[in-house]
Amino acid sequence: NAPKEAIAKPIIFFLLNFSLKTTRAIIVISMGLIKQSENTGIDGPIKLIAE
């Protein structure tokens, strides 16, 4: 049972770390898009999300 745990733990840790990084990247990108649309006055993406 110990070898399975030794293999599983790093994989689970990697997946959790990867998903956190991916989620953070998505948030950063969406925030950037919102800021860009506010700065340029183009609110197309925000209107699409709101509707």
Descriptive key words:
single chain; 51 residues; mainly alpha; 2 helices; 90% helix
Structure write-up:
By secondary structure, the chain is an all-alpha fold. It has one domain. It is built from two helices and no strands. The mean pLDDT is 80.
SSE topology sketch:
Elements: H1 2-40, H2 44-50
Q: What proportion strand?
A: under 5%
- Helices and strands: which structural class? mainly alpha
Radius of gyration: 19 Å
What's the tally of helices? Answer: 2
Helix content: over 70%
- Please give the alpha-carbon distance between the first and last residues: 52 Å
| Oligomer designation | single chain
The run of helices and strands is HH
**SS elements, strand count:** 0
For the sheet with most strands, the description reads:
none
What is the count of structural domains?
1
Mean of residue pLDDT values: 80
Q: What is the overall silhouette?
A: rod-shaped
User: Regions with pLDDT < 50 over 5+ consecutive residues?
Assistant: none
Summed up, what is this model?
This protein is mainly alpha-helical. It has 2 helices and no strands.
